[in-house]
Specification:
This protein has helices at 15-27, 44-50, 71-80; strands at 3-10, 32-39, 56-59, 63-66. By secondary structure, the protein is α+β, with helices and mostly antiparallel strands. Strands 2-1-3-4 form a 4-stranded mixed β-sheet, with helices on one face.
Length: 83
Amino acid sequence: MMSHRVVMYTKPGCHLCEDAMAMLRDLQNEFALAIEERDITTNDAWFKQYFEKIPVLMIDDHVTLAAPLRADEVRASLSSVNV
C-alpha cells in the first residue's frame, strides 16, 4: 500500500481541527497515512499563512486543502496523488 505524508496545520482549541484529525484517523482504514500535526501558534509564518484557513491539510507536499474539509474531497485527493 502506498504511504501518504499528511501535514495538518492546526491550533489548540480548534474544534474543526479536532474533527479533521478524527476524519484522518478514519481514513487510515483505507490509506497508509503518516500524519504530522503542526500548531500554527508555534510559528509566525504558519500563523500568518493559515490563521483564517485552519484546518489546512498538505498531502505529499503537493495537494493543499483548507476548511471546510470533507472526507470525500480528502479521499479523492489521497487517491489521485502519486507518491
